[in-house]
């Protein structure tokens, strides 16, 4: 049986979706926890926020940097009509975000930082997602059943809302889930022997 001989990734993220995406790409994954305040400068351009926070997380994960492993940190944000929609703090905020996203296009930015003990690679990916109209009953159902409080923009493309309300995606589906796996794969494969 042939193998790609993929290197191990130390994933400094609580996101089960990122772990699943990396494993689906064939990487052995070890998950570690980090402590990081996700604060960014107020004048930072919205499309730069995710990469900025991924870099902050990378600094917090520096204790795990090793020569024979890649340490990956990431952050995903949603931008709708020049407003940053991060993870909702409660049910009311989740409902408010979904009302803003209803029947509109929005941008999903994921920033990624990949480290070894000697090198750092950063990237940011953009996907544009168009949602169909969500009525009040649908929004209440979604928030109560799927509890999207750990998701930027209050939704997960891989669950009910993704199957019933996404009209169009321009860019990477995996990026909307939280990790542009194609770009991560390419960076790691290009640099695994350096």
Please give a quick description of this structure.
The chain is 33% helix and 25% strand. The protein has 194 residues and is an alpha/beta fold.
Structure, described:
This protein has helices at residues 16-24, 49-60, 91-101, 136-146, 160-164, 173-177, 181-191, and strands at 9-11, 29-31, 70-80, 83-85, 105-115, 120-131, 166-170. It is of the alpha/beta class. The protein has one domain (9-191): Maf protein (Alpha-Beta Complex). Strands 1, 2, 3, 4, 5, 6 and 7 form a seven-stranded mixed β-sheet that branches. Helix 3 (91-101) crosses helix 4 (136-146). It is globular. It starts with 8 loop residues before the first strand and ends with a helix.
Q: What is the average of the pLDDT values?
A: 93
SSE topology string = EHEHEEHEEHHEHH
Number of domain units: 1
Q: Count every beta strand, where a strand is a DSSP E run of 2 or more residues.
A: 7
**Largest sheet composition:** 7 strands, mixed
CATH architecture label name: Alpha-Beta Complex
Q: What is the straight-line distance between the termini?
A: 26 Å
In the CATH hierarchy, what is the class? Alpha Beta
Counting H and I runs of at least 4 residues, what is the number of helices?
Answer: 7
CATH fold-level assignment? Maf protein
User: What ranges have pLDDT less than 50 throughout 5 or more consecutive residues?
Assistant: none
Rounded to the nearest angstrom, the radius of gyration is 17 Å
Taken from the alpha-carbon principal axes, the silhouette is globular
Give the proportion of residues in helices.
25-40%
Percent of residues in beta strands: 15-25%
Return the structural class: alpha/beta
């Amino acid at each position: 049986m042939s193998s790609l001989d993929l290197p191990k990734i130390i994933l400094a993220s609580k996101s089960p979706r990122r772990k699943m995406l990396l494993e689906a790409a064939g990487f052995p994954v070890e998950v570690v926890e980090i402590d990081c305040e996700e604060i960014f400068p107020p004048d930072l351009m919205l499309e730069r926020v995710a990469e900025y926070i991924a870099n902050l997380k990378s600094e917090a994960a520096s204790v795990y940097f090793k020569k024979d492993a890649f340490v990956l940190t990431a952050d995903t944000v949603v931008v709708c009509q020049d407003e940053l929609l991060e993870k909702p703090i409660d049910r009311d905020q989740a409902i408010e975000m979904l009302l803003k996203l209803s029947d509109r296009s929005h941008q999903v930015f994921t920033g990624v930082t990949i480290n070894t003990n000697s090198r750092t690679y950063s990237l940011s990916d953009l996907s544009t997602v168009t949602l169909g109209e969500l009525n009040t009953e649908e929004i209440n159902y979604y928030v109560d059943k799927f509890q999207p409080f750990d998701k930027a923009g209050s939704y997960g493309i891989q669950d009910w809302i993704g199957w019933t309300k996404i009209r169009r995606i321009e860019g990477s589906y995996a990026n909307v889930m939280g990790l542009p796996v194609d770009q991560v794969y390419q960076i790691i494969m290009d640099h695994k022997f350096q």
